[in-house]
Amino acid sequence: MTLMILKMIGCLALLMFGMKTMSEGLQKLTGGHLRAVLGTMTKHRIGGLLTGTFVTASVQSSTATTVLTVSFVNAGLLTLSQAIPVIMGANIGTTATAWIMSIFGFQFNMSSVVWPFFALGIILSYTKKNSTKSLGEFVFGFAFMFLGLTTLRENAVAMDLAHNQTIINFFATTGGWGIFSTLLFLLLGSILTMCVQSSAAIMAITLLLCSSGVLPIYQGIALVMGENIGTTVTSNLAALSASTQARRAALAHMLFNVFGVVWVLIVFRPFVNMVCSIVGFDPTFVPHTEEEVAQASVRVTYALSAFHTAFNLCNVLILIWFIKPMEKIICKIIREKEDGEDFKVKFISAGLMSTAELSLFEARKEINLFAARTQKMFRMVPELLEMKDENDFVKLFARIEKYEGISDNMEIEIANYLNKVSEGRLSPESKTNIQSMLREISEIESIGDSCYNMARAINRKFRSKEDFTENQYGHIKHIMQLCDNALTNMIDVISDYASADANRTLNLENEINDYRKLLKEKNVTDIENQEYSYQMGVHYMDVVNDCEKLGDYVVNVVEAHTNKKFST
Q: For 356-562, which CATH superfamily applies?
C-alpha cells in the first residue's frame, strides 16, 4: 500500500511538472504576443473577460495571466477596475484544465499517444530556431502531463480504491454529516491546494476518486470549491510583501472565489443537481452492473468539470456588474502606501514567480522603478543647491546620502535576483536580456553615485565662507535641467513607451558635453578676471563634471537596453 501511495505522489509530480513545462514553453513562444493582447484587449470589461479566459486557457496558468495583468496596473496602463475582469476571465480559463483531464486523461488511454509526442518534442528541441525549441518544450510538457494522468489512472486501478474498505468507511462516515460534511471537504480542498501549490493536482485526485466510485459527487464538488479558495490563499500569501496593486489584485481574486463559495453553499444541493442534470448524471443513482459503473465513472468526471465551469461562469455573470463597488471595497481594505525614503524592492520581494519568464518580467519592472527613484534622488540635488538654512541643508544632504547607500543595496538585490532567474529554463533571447539588465542596473547605480558626488561638492561649498555667483547658479541649474531631461528620456526608453526615442538620449548627452566644455573654458576666464576664487571654481566644476558623467551613464543605460551602440 505504501508503494502505491508513493507511486501516486510520483504521478502527481509528473502531472505538475508537465503542466509547468507546458506553461513555460508557451510563454516563451508567445510571451510578447500575450503582453500585446493583454495591453490592447482589456480596455473594456467584456474584452478583458474574454482576454483573461483565452490567455489562461492557452498557457494553462492563471498565475501567468494575473502577473501580466498586475504588471500593466503597476505601469499605469490599466486601472484596477480594468484588471478585475481579466482576473475573472482567468478563473473561467483555468476550468479548461479540468475538461482536458476529464475528456482525455480519464476516458481515453493516452499511453500509446504520448510516446510519439516525446519523440516530436526532442526533435523540435534540437532545432536552431528559438521559437521551434519553445514549441518542443511545450510538446514535452504536453506529453509529461498526459503520461502523469495515464499512470495516475493505472495506479488507481491497481490500488482498487472502489473496494478499499478504509477509504469507503471514511467517506461514508463523513458523508452523513450534512452541511458539516460539505464544510469539511471544502476545508480539506483548501488545505491540500495550499500544501501542493497546484489546484490542477488536487482536481486530478478529485476526478480520480469520484470516477472510482469511492468519493460521492457532493463531497467531490466540495473539494473543488475548496481548491478555488486554496489557490487564492496561496496568491495572497505570495503578495504580502509585493506592491499595493499586486496585493489588491490578489485580494480581488480571493473575494471573487469566496463570494462564489458562499452563494453556492446556500443553494448547494439544487445547484449541484442542476449541473449534474446538464451532463446527464444522477447523483442519487447507484450502479449495479459493470456497464453502469463504467458509464457513471465517465459522467461523474464531466459533472465535476461542468460544476467547475458553471461555478466560475455564474460568479462572473453576477459580479461583472459590480466591478466599481469591488474596486472601492478592495482599495479601502488595502490602502496605498506612501513611497518611503528608501529604495526597497517592490516587485521581486515575493521571490521568484512560477516561471523564469515571468520572473524576468518582474525584474524589468523593478529596474524601471529603480531608475525612476534614482531620478527622484537626482531632483533633490537642485533643492540642496538652493538651501541656505543649515538644519534644512543637513537633513536633505543626509537623505541623499541614505539614498546612495540604499541604491547600492538595490543593485545587489536585483543582480542576485537576475542570477537566480538565469538558473531557470530561459529562451536565448531572455538570457541576452538578463545580460542587458545587469548592465542597466550597474549604470543606474553609477547615476546614483554621480548624484551623491554632486551633493558632496555642494556640501563642500556650503561649508566654505564663499558662495557661487548668480551666473554660476544659473549655469548649474541649466546643465542639471539637461540631465533631468536625459533621465526622463532614459526612463521612457527602458519602459518601452511607444513615444520614446533612444536617439534623443545621444542628442541630450552631446548638449551636456558641449555645455560642460563651454563652462570649463569660461571658468578659467572668470577665475583670471577674479569673478570668484579658485576654490569656488573647483567646487563649481566638480558639480558640472559630475553632471557630464551622469549624462554618460544615461547613454550607457539606453545602449544596454536597446542593445545599440551610439557613436559619440
A: Phosphate transport system protein phou homolog 2; domain 2 (1.20.58.220)
φ, ψ dihedrals at 386, nearest 5° = -80, -20
Residue located via cell numbers 541643508: 393
Q: Take residue 87 and report the three cell numbers written for it.
A: 482576473
pLDDT in tens, 105-160: 655 566 667 788 888 888 888 887 777 887 888 888 878 877 777 776 667 666 65
Please report, as a single letter, which amino acid is at residue 248: R
Print the SS3 string covering 367-402: HHHHHHHHHHHHCHHHHHHHCCCHHHHHHHHHHHHH
| Three-state secondary-structure class, residue 277 | helix
pTM of the model: 0.61
158-188 exposure pattern, b = at least 16 Cβ within 10 A, e = fewer: ebebbeeeebeeebeebbeeeeebbebbbeb
Closest CA to 260 of 307, 203, 311: 311
Distance (Å, rounded) from C-alpha 532 to C-alpha 169? 96
Kindly report, residue by residue over 28-74, the tens digit of the pLDDT: 666 556 556 655 555 677 777 888 888 777 766 676 676 667 666 65
Query: Which residue, among 560, 407, 552, has the nearest Cα to 483 in the 3D structure?
Result: 552
